[in-house]
Specification:
Layout lengths: L1 E3 L6 H7 L12 E2 L2 E2 L5 H6 L1 E5 L9 H6 L7 H10 L3 H4 L19 H15 L3 E5 L7 H15 L3 E5 L12 E5 L2 E6 L1 H7 L2 H16 L3
Parallel strand pairs: 1-6, 1-7, 4-5, 5-6
Antiparallel strand pairs: 2-3, 7-8
Length: 217
């Protein structure tokens, strides 16, 4: 499910309600038909992985930061997650490789490299619910392609909630929800919402126009 809409429409609020960073005032958020408030919070969060725009990394090695996704994982599992997230593409070029220190909050890495570690962490955790909140918004087009490849592996076989301003990320979603002022104003597939000529169609048109302006003449 993809959530789209202008800034302040409620996209991140929706995703924050799922792991109970805060609770609803009315209604309910349900996982497999069960109100999340009736589930043990540790169990709930153990079954949710999040890849956010602002990646939080620790002052340690690339390996340790991936391992944080599931501390009891074997070396083979960590390596498999790193390969699936394309972390090896840059780790092998750094002195020390996977054992290289990345500095506080990953200061020695680029934004795209940090995101790939975050994706590897989520792959290793292997939770049935995945939340992607603007995971590719701060990277260039070439890096985005690499990250999208890793994300496509990560989303297989699990419930995924995607927030993205770059609409190329959400086109393949089974269901797209267009949010406006805290309400779901429209829902459907990419093709259905384009025909409806509403929020989603307007966002697509704006991005197409912006992209055409950036192209060199």
């Amino acid at each position: 499910v993809a959530l789209v809409g202008p800034t302040g429409s409620g996209k991140s609020t929706c995703t924050n309600l799922i792991p109970r960073f805060y609770d609803v005032d009315t209604g309910s958020v349900r996982v497999s038909g069960i109100d999340v408030r009736d589930l043990p919070i540790a169990w709930l969060r153990a079954n949710i992985s999040m890849v956010l725009q602002d990646v939080f990394l620790f002052d340690g090695t690339i390996w340790d930061n991936i391992l944080f996704g599931r501390p009891d994982a074997s070396d083979d599992e960590v390596l498999a997650a790193a390969l699936a997230a394309n972390v090896d593409e840059f780790a092998e070029q750094i002195p020390g490789g996977f054992r290289a220190s990345i500095g506080e909050r990953g200061v020695r890495l680029s934004g795209g490299q940090q995101q790939r570690i975050s994706i590897a962490r989520a792959i290793l955790k292997n939770s049935p619910i995945l939340i992607l909140d603007e995971a590719t918004s701060s990277v260039d087009a070439e890096t985005e392609s690499t990250i999208q490849e890793a994300i496509s592996r990560l989303t297989r076989g699990r419930t995924t909630i995607v927030i993205a301003h770059r609409l190329s990320t959400v086109r393949r979603a089974d269901q797209i929800l267009g949010l406006l002022d805290g309400t779901v104003a429209e829902s459907g597939t990419h093709e259905e919402l384009i025909e409806r000529d509403g929020i989603y169609a307007n966002l697509c048109q704006m991005q197409t126009e912006m992209s055409s302006r950036r192209k060199p003449r």
